[in-house]
Design goal:
Length: 146
C-alpha cells in the first residue's frame, strides 16, 4: 500500500474528525447520555501490511464533549477513540496472534444517523478496495466495540 495508502488513512481520519466536531444528530445507543458524542466507527490494522484486519462498523458512545483543557489529544472523545483502538489491537493480538508493533490500528469515526453510517460504509469499502488493489489480504474480524 505504501505512502499513498497511509496518506489516505490519515486524510480519512482527519476528515472523520471534522464530521464529528461539526455536530452529531440521530439515534443514540442505549447507554448514551445527553451531550455525549455518538459516532459510527470501524477499526483497521496497518493498511500497508500484507494482511489488513477490519472490524465491523459499529455505533459507539465516545462520552461527553470536551476540549481536553485545550489539548485535542486529551479530549474525552480522543481518549475514548484511543481506548477503542487499543482494545481492537489487543483483540487482534489475542485472536490472530499478530505482532502488535507491526499492526498498529486506526479507528476513524463518521458521526451518527444515516449519513454517518453511509460515510463509514463508503470509507471502509474504499479502504478494503485499496488493500486488494495492492495485492493485500483483507480479513473481516467481525469485532465490534461492545
Amino acid at each position: 500500500m505504501g505512502r499513498t495508502g497511509i496518506a489516505w488513512w490519515v486524510a480519512t481520519a482527519v476528515a472523520a474528525a471534522g464530521v464529528m466536531v461539526a455536530g452529531l444528530v440521530g439515534a443514540k445507543p442505549a447507554s448514551a447520555a445527553d451531550g455525549d458524542v455518538q459516532t459510527y466507527m470501524y477499526c483497521a490494522s496497518r493498511v500497508d501490511a500484507p494482511v489488513v484486519y477490519f472490524s465491523d462498523i459499529f455505533l459507539t458512545n465516545l462520552g461527553p464533549r470536551g476540549n481536553g483543557g485545550g489539548n485535542p489529544h486529551t479530549s474525552p472523545t480522543q481518549l475514548a477513540i484511543n481506548n477503542i483502538s487499543s482494545d481492537y489491537l489487543a483483540f487482534l493480538v489475542k485472536k490472530y496472534k499478530t505482532n502488535a508493533p507491526s499492526h498498529p490500528t486506526g479507528c476513524p469515526n463518521f458521526g451518527n444517523g444515516d449519513a454517518g453510517l453511509q460515510s463509514a460504509q463508503t470509507s471502509k469499502q474504499k479502504l478494503e478496495d485499496q488493500v486488494k488493489a495492492a495485492k493485500g489480504q483483507v480479513v473481516e474480524t467481525e469485532w465490534k466495540n461492545e
